[in-house]
Amino acid sequence: MKVINLSEQNSVLNQYLSEIRDVDIQKDPLRFRRNIERIGEVMAMEVSKTLNYEPKDVQTPLGVAKVNTISDTLVLATILRAGLPLHQGFLNVFDRAENAFLSAYRRVNAKGELEIVAEYMAAPSVDGKTLIVADPMLATGMSMEVGYLALLRHGKPTHAHLCCTIATPKAIECIRETLNDSPDVTIWCAAIDPVLNDKKYIVPGLGDAGDLCYGIKVHLSDR
Q1: How far is 169 from 125, CA to CA, in rounded Å?
Q2: CA–CA gap between residue 197 and residue 215 (Å, rounded)
Q3: Is 176 strand, coil or helix?
Q4: Strand partners, 166
Q5: Where do the structural domains in the chain lie, given as residue ranges?
Q6: Which of 209, 97, 108 is nearest to 157 (CA)?
Q7: How confident is the model at residue 221 (pLDDT cuts 50, 70, 90)?
Q8: pLDDT digits (tens, 9 = 90+) for 158-216
Q9: What sign does the dihedral 74-123-127-149 (CA atoms) show?
Q10: What is the 3-state secondary structure (H, E, C) of 7-76?
């Protein structure tokens, strides 16, 4: 399994990353969502360099141009709700892709352990296709793991790109172990942060991506 940390390169992506982390800029949800979306667009361009291409003849007003175009069939998947802006960034670039949506949320079980509950999925077959899963925060890796394994019930992709804004080494190792270090999986990160706090949020991270995008949610314990 290959892991690519895009913050190791100097690019405009680092500017967008700095802004989604900034507590003052975070006060503007529209700007926060757009920066997440722009990270998705930049990351999609990087992913596009790894895809398969084939030549295509294109008729212009003056002749025929030969252009290499993507030959892979793409499926873009995301985990609701926080993944929507990142997903949109990828969709802006891969505008002909099929789409998949999954729901997942954290819950503390009777043993006091954190678990991920998945309740909804709308997805095409991923069999023989290139799968891209966009999830902004790869904290424990559990949401990405649950979502990816659920999608595998719809077939086996030729390659999977698991894409996030910020990850932790723990989450990456969790996915590596679950997927047996598969060479058919690539993890893409805009940054890798070192640790989680006691609430399983990434530090320094950026906070709760879903709340920053769409407003603070009511927890079951608050009702």
Answers
A1: 30
A2: 22
A3: helix
A4: 137, 191
A5: 7-48+74-213
A6: 97
A7: very low
A8: 999 999 999 999 999 999 998 888 899 999 999 999 999 988 899 999 999 999 999 88
A9: positive
A10: HHCCCCHHHHHHHHHCCCHHHCHHHHHHHHHHHHHHHHHHHHCCCCEEEEEEEECCEEEEEEEECCCEEE
Q: What is the pLDDT of residues 57-114, one digit of tens each?
A: 999 999 999 999 999 999 999 998 899 999 999 999 999 999 999 987 766 667 766 6
Both tokens assigned to 174:
């969790």
For residue 193, the SS3 value is coil
Q: If DSSP codes are grouped into helix, strand and coil, which group holds residue 93? A: helix
Q: Is the dihedral of CA 221, 217, 142, 130 positive or negative?
A: positive
Between CA 147 and CA 40, with CA 200 as vertex, the angle to 5 degrees is 50
Overall fold of domain 7-48+74-213:
Rossmann fold (3.40.50)
Please tell me what DSSP assigns to residue 132.
E
